[in-house]
Design brief:
Strand order of the largest sheet: 4-3-5-6-7-8-9-10
CATH architecture of the largest domain: 2-Layer Sandwich
Shape: globular
Distance between the termini: 47 Å
Radius of gyration: 18 Å
CATH class of the largest domain: Alpha Beta
Strand content: 15-25%
Number of strands: 15
Structural class: alpha+beta
Length: about 270
């Protein structure tokens, strides 16, 4: 690991530990989630955890920017910026389902250089940092290395995240891979880093706080991760993302996406 990231990774892991009992406590309580003006869900865990994290960061790294899903902040293109998603998978959390995580990332000049994804209910904590192998609870992770789309085990996001013309991408992938799981959310990217599956894809409804923490985890396990057009992912990224277990598989999947979106080009 690059030495300059050591204290930041330790801080991010500590933040995951701080959030874990809060997420568990609120998830186990009765009651239903609230809704934001845009119609998306929000829970008390989203708000409490982000406030907890912000307090920790402001005390320990006062010169760093902070951008969080619930309270916004600084999307600085230069310097250090912490990117926070206190509950990724709020629909699952708010409806009493277990498929959620907490996401913490640190970007340097807009590039994700460190990511932590914690699954509070099962005690699985994934981490990745530039210059170091990705880990699951201290265990080194390695992608499967599979290079054939037809043989791939894939996690494909919720169908509603593939609206209009993007639905062709959903159908093309589902019809090509060996087997699929659906609406797995961010934990799918940890499973990919762990070699449990070979491809993970999300539709066009993502923002940077959904994306940044996943990139170092996937790449540090030997995987490839980009936007749908093959573009690198950054603090400013939004829209569809895809991660795969090898560069060859990535290129095949990107070709399939391009053909699905513009079918005339393959004629």
């Amino acid at each position: 690991m690059a030495a300059d990231l050591d204290p930041f990774l330790n801080a991010a892991l500590h933040m995951a530990e701080l959030a874990r009992p809060v997420a568990r406590r609120i998830w186990q309580q009765p009651g239903r989630a609230d809704f934001k003006p845009d119609g998306s869900m929000v829970t008390r865990a989203d708000l409490e955890i982000e406030q907890l994290w912000r307090g920790f960061l402001q005390e320990n790294f006062p010169g760093h920017g902070i951008w969080g899903e619930e309270f916004g902040g600084d999307q600085a293109a230069e310097g250090w910026t912490w990117v926070l998603d206190p509950i990724d998978g709020t629909r699952h959390f708010g409806m009493g389902l277990p498929g959620f995580s907490t996401l913490i990332s640190l970007c340097r000049d807009g590039e994700p250089v460190l990511g932590v994804m914690d699954l509070p209910l099962c005690g699985a904590c994934y981490s990745g940092a530039h210059g170091a192998p990705s880990l699951l609870n201290g265990q080194v992770l390695q992608v499967s290395g599979l290079d054939s789309l037809a043989a791939a085990q894939a996690a494909i996001a919720n169908h509603d995240a593939f609206p209009d013309a993007n639905a062709a991408v959903y159908e093309a992938l589902r019809g090509t891979v060996r087997i699929s799981a659906f609406d797995a959310g961010s934990p799918a990217y940890g499973a990919l880093a762990h070699g449990k599956l070979d491809l993970a894809i999300n539709g066009t409804d993502l923002e940077g706080f959904d994306i940044c923490a996943l990139v170092p985890i996937v790449e540090g396990a030997g995987g490839a991760m980009t936007g749908w057009a093959g573009e690198p992912l950054s603090l400013a990224s939004a829209g569809g993302i895809i991660a795969t277990s090898s560069q060859a598989l990535h290129e095949e999947a990107l070709d399939l996406i391009a053909s699905a979106l513009q079918p005339g080009l393959s004629d």
